[in-house]
Inverse folding.
């Protein structure tokens, strides 16, 4: 019989065990081994059956066992020690508190998904895992972050396979009362709510659930409340599900409702109000509109409020392809704003102008969430050095007249939270060298460029560790594969072969990620005979573990999964290659450490960062990857291999795949497998072990989320907080008025004449030329602009590369025609083809960069030809 109603019955813990409840509700347990070990000792069988979830564990432990533990002095001593450790972690000073200068009192971090732990399944892939690692690292560093997201009642889908290998989706219902969450309540005990106005007089209400991620509160908005109609209750049903209006409502709730949730949380708890708002991808971009509306309610007009909001906003883009950005029909967005809907006091046209693609190549009737994110943030970044460059080119249309490298989008390369992803065996090996506390700090806080102590670990210990981790993965794979085949309809009698799947002494390659086409799940199948030869080589075999989910609406991705599964089902190779369904955090934490090689073969440069290889590297797994994302930035032959690419503009996609697949097979046959299997006199693969050692010592410190969050604090959060404080109402009005005045007058700005003066007919390295420029400023004054000389080497088309920029100074006053003369030196500081130009930019003390307004005046073509190049 099916229950007509579901209740959550909470256990009543004996008084001595009450701290267990606090430990279970703080998600620090997900990356703190001592806390997890404590929960496992409560009841090992229940711990395993609960999926290693402390909240579920405490709901299933028999009362008799709890009574027994309440009298168990050794257990109570351990409980006290772990509880005291958590208290010290939550209240003591950490890295952030030791920094000088005025750092932000708080930072609000918005993301559509958060991957904290498998026990809170609110993530689909890399974006969510990155957001979760960001929160954890901020907690370890003491950064006063407040996370904001949505609570999806079905999370992302669970994946299984049909008998013929087709992906099946399942959407289990998540009960918040059974998750590590508490409901945020008003002082009278009623649930705290936020509400959004919808067209037609309707309303979207949401409760606020709180997940405590160490020191960081994570607020999750839930629309499944009785006050909503059925349609509104389903707004937060699934992550990345539904049609355009459904997605728009999710993103309005995340952005607008999220700001209201932060205000409510700060009011109820006394938490410091955020000075900086960080938009993790464009989904949360509407948060800027809500903050503008707040300031308009305080008396600022829209333009001034926009400047004030921009000053304290950071925007991170995660996609290198336009298809990865949410875009909505103009009329759909217009219908949800204005007098009869949300933000009624803001003119709808102003809202639309923030997101419309009003630039060459844009779609004029589409509202682009990333474009809005960039227009509402004074600071923006990509997530690797290469991705920063790709993003500058991708969004260059927003800054016409500027070279792509000057587009104001920087980069902060992603990192991963080592305490979450490093296997306990790897941690123990490091702690044996330097002690537990130093090992914890090295993983969580980082700060050192090298982990030199790895050099002192004996080769034998490293090799034994690698085999232990590989052996654990083999057992995990067999268990998961057996469960998968049962789901596919196989009987026990058919599954005896699984006992021989994988070998703990064979080179093991991992490939696990989402399955969009650009990640090329099936590139390894390009030449199946050659792959089979690698898998079945008599002396140097390989084995491959593959996992990944295709988006439910992506039939092309599902076909790739099916193609891989059918190959892995072949009795000739099924002991050497496996596909594991339902890839998630729990699987990943076993998969990364157990692999010897982490394979990544996307279409370059479409991988923004690709952090899975970082997690593998922290466990001594070597990377074999296309030079894309983070690997393009940090690859060295000392600790991995680069797959050559054929990414020229004229390369046929099919031919490109063939070339790059052949390069992959060549590397495996000629360099990777020989290195793994060759033995020194000691009987150990000493050259392989040295690569593992270099991976840990040189790459390990770079890939840490602690390093990443420190960079965000120093390069983005601190400057944004400073700009926020400087943008008082008068300054905001002044800047808005100045921008309006400059924009209206800019057509009158021009470069009229450029000349150089020199005492020598020869242009030699180290000499200096005098530069004299005459410009028209029209209605503007010299304090409104900066006149620059831009110089550097030139390419065959006379484009300046690696440019140096030097401001020129006005000489005297304007002439009778209102023209100003600027002068300055031009240093010839490099040999070879050299060129220069001049330009005029707006200048104001509150601008983050001269490119920010998107205005520039340069010499006309005729004038440029007359001035010419200095030398060639």
């Amino acid at each position: 019989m099916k229950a007509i109603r579901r209740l959550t019955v909470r256990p009543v813990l004996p008084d001595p065990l009450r701290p267990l409840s606090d430990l279970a509700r703080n998600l620090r347990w997900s990356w703190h081994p001592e806390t997890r070990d404590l929960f496992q000792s409560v009841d090992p069988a229940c711990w395993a059956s609960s999926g290693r979830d402390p909240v579920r564990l405490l709901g299933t432990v028999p009362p008799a066992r709890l009574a027994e533990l309440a009298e168990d002095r050794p257990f109570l001593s351990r409980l006290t020690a772990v509880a005291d450790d958590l208290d010290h972690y939550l209240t003591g000073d950490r890295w952030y508190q030791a920094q000088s200068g005025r750092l932000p009192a708080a930072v609000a971090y918005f993301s559509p998904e958060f991957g904290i732990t498998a026990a809170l399944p609110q993530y689909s892939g890399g974006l969510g895992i990155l957001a979760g690692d960001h929160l954890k690292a901020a907690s370890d560093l003491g950064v006063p972050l407040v996370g904001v997201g949505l609570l999806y009642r079905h999370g992302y889908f669970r994946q299984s396979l049909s008998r013929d290998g087709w992906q099946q989706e399942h959407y289990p219902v998540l009960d918040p009362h059974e998750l590590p969450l508490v409901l945020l309540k008003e002082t009278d005990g009623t649930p705290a709510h936020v509400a959004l106005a919808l067209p037609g007089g309707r309303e979207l209400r949401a409760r606020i659930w709180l997940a405590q991620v160490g020191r960081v509160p994570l607020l999750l908005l839930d629309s499944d409340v009785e006050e909503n109609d059925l349609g509104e209750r389903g707004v937060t049903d699934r992550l990345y599900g539904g049609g355009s209006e459904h997605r728009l409502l999710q993103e309005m709730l995340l952005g607008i409702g999220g700001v209201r949730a932060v205000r409510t949380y700060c009011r109820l708890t006394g938490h410091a109000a955020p000075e900086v708002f960080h938009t993790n991808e464009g989904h949360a971009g509407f948060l800027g509109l809500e903050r503008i509306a707040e300031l308009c309610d305080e008396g600022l007009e829209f333009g001034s409020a926009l400047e004030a909001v921009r000053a304290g906003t950071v925007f991170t883009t995660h996609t290198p392809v336009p298809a990865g950005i949410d875009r909505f029909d103009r009329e759909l967005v217009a219908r949800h704003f204005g007098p009869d809907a949300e933000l009624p006091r803001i003119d709808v046209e102003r809202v639309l102008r923030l997101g419309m693609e009003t630039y060459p190549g844009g779609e004029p009737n589409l509202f682009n969430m990333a474009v809005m994110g960039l227009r509402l943030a004074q600071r923006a970044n990509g997530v690797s050095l290469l991705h920063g460059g790709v993003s500058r080119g991708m969004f260059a249309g927003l800054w016409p007249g500027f070279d792509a490298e000057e587009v104001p989008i920087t980069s902060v390369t992603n990192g991963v939270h080592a305490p979450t992803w490093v296997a306990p065996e790897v941690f123990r090996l490091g702690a044996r060298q330097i002690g537990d506390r130093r090992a914890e700090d090295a993983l969580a806080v980082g700060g050192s460029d090298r982990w030199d102590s790895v050099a002192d670990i004996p080769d034998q210990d490293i090799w034994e560790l690698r085999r232990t981790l590989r052996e654990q993965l083999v057992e995990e794979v067999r268990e998961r594969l057996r469960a998968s085949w049962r789901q596919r309809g196989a009987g026990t009698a058919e599954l005896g072969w699984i006992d021989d799947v994988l070998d703990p002494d064979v080179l093991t390659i991992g490939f696990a990620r989402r399955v969009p086409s650009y990640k090329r799940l099936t590139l390894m199948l390009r030449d199946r005979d050659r792959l089979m030869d690698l898998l079945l080589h008599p002396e140097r075999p390989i084995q491959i573990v593959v996992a990944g989910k295709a988006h439910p609406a992506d039939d092309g991705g599902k076909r790739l999964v099916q193609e891989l599964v059918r190959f892995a089902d072949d009795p000739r190779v099924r002991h050497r290659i496996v596909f594991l369904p339902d890839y998630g955090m729990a699987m990943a934490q076993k998969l990364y450490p157990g692999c010897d090689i982490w394979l990544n073969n996307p279409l370059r440069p479409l991988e923004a960062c690709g952090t899975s290889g970082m997690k593998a590297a922290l466990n001594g797994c070597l990377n074999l990857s296309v030079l894309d994302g983070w690997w393009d930035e940090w690859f060295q032959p000392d600790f991995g291999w680069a797959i050559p690419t054929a990414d020229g503009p004229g390369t046929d996609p099919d031919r490109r795949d063939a070339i790059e697949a052949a390069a992959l097979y060549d590397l495996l046959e000629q360099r990777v497998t020989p290195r793994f299997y060759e033995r020194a006199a000691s009987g150990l693969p000493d050259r392989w072990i040295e690569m593992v050692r270099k991976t840990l010592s040189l790459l390990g410190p770079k890939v840490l989320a602690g390093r990443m969050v420190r960079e965000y604090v120093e390069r983005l959060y601190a400057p944004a907080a400073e700009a926020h404080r400087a943008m008082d109402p008068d300054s905001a009005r002044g800047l808005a008025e100045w921008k309006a005045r400059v924009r209206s007058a800019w057509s009158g700005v021009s470069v009229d004449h450029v000349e150089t003066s020199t005492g020598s007919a020869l242009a030699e390295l180290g000499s200096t030329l005098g530069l004299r420029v005459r410009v028209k400023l029209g209605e503007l004054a010299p304090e409104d602009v900066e006149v620059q000389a831009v110089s550097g080497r030139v390419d065959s088309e006379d484009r300046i590369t690696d440019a140096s920029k030097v401001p020129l100074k006005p000489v005297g006053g304007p002439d009778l025609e209102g023209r100003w003369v600027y002068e300055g030196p031009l240093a010839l500081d490099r040999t070879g083809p050299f060129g220069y130009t001049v330009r005029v930019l707006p200048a104001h003390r509150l601008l983050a960069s001269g490119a920010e307004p998107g205005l520039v005046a340069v010499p006309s073509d005729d004038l440029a030809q007359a001035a010419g190049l200095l030398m060639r």
Remarks:
- Residues 864-872 have pLDDT under 50 and may be disordered.
- The longest helix spans residues 459-487.
